[in-house]
Design brief:
This protein has 24 helices and no strands. The chain is an all-alpha fold and 601 residues long. It starts with a helix and ends in a 13-residue tail after the last helix.
Length: 601
């Protein structure tokens, strides 16, 4: 008996009730009977509840046996464990709706290009059904490809005629744009209208709508970035001020303390758990809101994971943790690394306490360098590729009007300069002269080019030529659509790039204020005749700010360029900026000036 069968037998009709809460499973692409899915959610919730209760009981008993005066923070772990069953149930119920939302977003980004493909192919006499079938083998449009395969099953497996199958799929899928495109095509075909004109006009409208949406989304992302910076700066500064005040009061009044950060564990949870989670949450929100291509190059993340992990595993204990756990200083090579940071801190003229922060900056910077170098290498290779292809396509249209075949036009244009695209055009011209098939030419091109936009544009061009649609009218249509895409990209960059300055300004305000705050409270205590463990306080408060600054760089890169990997460079720049701010700390740290001329003893 399978797990789904056992769950359905165990919970029965209760699984139907849960399934109704989950939404349309068919539209979400979850191919499972509703009762079985609802029962699986209940089974997972039950198992999680049993495990959570058992672990919570063990922890509470352990605390009562080992610790006499137990802090509230330790009880958070059992409480969180007891919340897990509710979280599992809510995730199970929300998963189909999340899938529907993901499919809708993917189709919305893919439909304009799929519509452009069907419109271009229709000018060459290819029906939209055949065009969609050809798209089923294209990995560049993954969600649309899955839809095309479903259409193929309905026509060849279930006996639907193509027009009816298109209508049925259009009604079921969550994308409004895709639904209107398919239903409008079916209606035009049934009424004997001009299908080619409809597809061309509909595609133009899709690109215009996407351009307008990009402008609206740019404003939303700007507001989201402002909200992030307000919380990232003001929340952190507020909590740090409260903690510094509590520490100062604790120095002035014996036995004082308490408050929200009476226990250092609360501060550690806030600074090392909540703040990074807060930034990760905003990265996810930006990814949901931001327009993006159907496929993303994940190789920079692979490079970062492969290089940063061992580097940080070596440097962070030696550069940072060894100052908090002195026992590490006796272990090679951590003794050498901690000694180097101590020497560097003295060389920069900084007080004791800055060593872990300086070490953390160096560790994160060195760990990020390979990913930054790789990202810059990709940017250098792909720079101007999209605009170069737009120029190439426009030249191809003009030469094609002279009567040359599309293949001879490409060979003729291979001598012109299109920036980084030129070498790929020359390779194509050579392959064409050798008689290599268009499919093989595209495979070679797609292996060497990373830009999704250039690859999809080249696919449209070569596929249109292959089926005999390389007429001047067809190429003119393709060139016009490609220029619309380039215009959209320029609009998106112009809207989002100014937002990149916000993390830099926020970093300067944050680091300067934290250091000035610490020196101010130390001076106040000295005026009151009390001392303050300034080095220990800097060791505690400043390293979380470094991690927070690094995450701010990732958020800035994500908003400005649409990829978190583009934020590695800006995270590195923010670390360097933070290091410079710390080095200049003695020059902007201030203290209250005593009045009355008396000597403070």
């Amino acid at each position: 008996m399978s797990i789904s069968s056992f769950a359905a037998w165990l919970f029965g009709p209760l699984g139907d009730r849960v399934a109704k809460m989950c939404g349309d499973l068919e539209a979400s692409g979850i191919r499972i009977y509703p009762r079985a899915y609802g029962s699986i959610v209940l089974l997972a919730t039950l198992i999680t509840a049993i495990v959570s209760v058992a672990l919570s009981s063990i922890l509470i008993v352990s605390y009562s046996l080992i610790v006499v005066n137990i802090g509230f923070e330790l009880y958070l772990i059992p409480v969180l464990l007891l919340c897990l069953p509710v979280i599992v149930f809510l995730l199970g119920v929300a998963w189909p709706r999340m899938k529907i939302s993901s499919i809708k977003a993917s189709l919305s980004s893919e439909v304009p290009y799929a519509a452009a493909y069907t419109a271009v192919m229709s000018t060459g006499g290819i029906s939209p059904y055949v065009s969609i079938m050809r798209l089923s083998r294209v990995p560049l449009l993954p969600t649309f490809s899955e839809t095309a395969k479903l259409l193929d099953i309905m026509v060849r497996g279930l006996g639907y005629d193509p027009v009816t199958a298109l209508e049925e799929i259009g009604k079921k899928l969550p994308s409004k744009e895709f639904r209107e495109l398919l239903l409008g095509y079916a209606s035009t075909l049934k009424t004997g209208g001009d299908v080619v004109h409809y597809l061309l006009r509909r595609t133009e409208l899709l690109f215009q709508e996407r351009l307008e949406n990009l402008k609206l989304i740019g404003g939303r992302l700007g507001q989201l970035m402002e909200v992030y910076i307000v919380f990232a700066i003001l929340l952190l500064l507020g909590i740090y001020t409260i903690y510094a005040v509590q520490m100062s009061i604790g120095e002035l009044v014996a036995g004082a303390g308490g408050g929200i950060f009476g226990n250092i564990m609360s501060f550690i949870l806030f600074s090392y758990a909540f703040l990074p989670f807060f930034s990760i949450l905003f990265l996810w929100l930006i990814d949901v809101v931001q327009p993006k291509y159907p496929m993303e190059d994940n190789s920079p993340y692979i490079v970062f994971a492969a290089t940063a992990t061992p580097i940080m595993a070596l440097l962070i204990p030696g550069f940072c943790v060894s100052f908090l756990a002195p026992g590490l200083k006796e272990i090679p090579p951590f003794n050498f690394l901690s000694g180097f940071i101590t020497w560097l801190n003295n060389y920069l003229g900084l007080e004791r306490g800055y060593e872990p922060s300086i070490g953390l900056i160096l560790a994160l910077s060195i760990a990020s360098l390979p990913a930054v170098a790789y990202r810059m290498y990709i940017n250098f290779k792909e720079r101007g590729m999209d605009t170069g292809f737009a120029g190439f396509l426009r030249d191809l249209v003009e030469i094609r009007k002279s009567g040359l075949s599309p293949e001879k036009c490409i060979i003729s244009l291979s001598e012109r300069n299109y920036g980084n695209l030129s070498k790929h055009i020359k390779t194509m011209a050579t392959q064409i002269s050798w008689g290599i098939s268009h499919a093989e030419i595209y495979r070679t091109f797609s292996k060497k080019v990373r830009s999704w936009l250039t690859k999809i544009s080249m696919f449209l061009l070569l596929d249109a030529i292959e089926v005999g649609g390389g007429t001047p009218e067809t190429l003119e249509t393709l060139a016009r659509f490609n220029e619309s895409i380039i215009l959209m990209e320029k609009e998106k960059r112009s809207e989002l790039k100014p937002l990149l300055m916000i993390p830099y300004i926020g970093t300067g305000v944050l680091v300067v204020t934290v250091i000035a705050l610490l020196t101010f409270f130390r001076s106040m205590l000295l005026m009151a005749g009390r001392s303050m463990a300034f080095g220990d306080l800097v060791q505690l408060l400043l390293p979380p700010v470094i991690i927070h600054v690094y995450m701010m760089g990732l958020v800035g890169g994500k908003i400005a360029y649409g990829e978190t990997s583009s934020g590695f460079f800006h995270a590195l720049m923010l670390l360097i900026f933070t290091l410079a701010t710390i080095v200049l700390a003695p020059y902007y740290s201030f203290a209250p000036v005593p009045t009355g001329g008396g000597k403070i003893g």
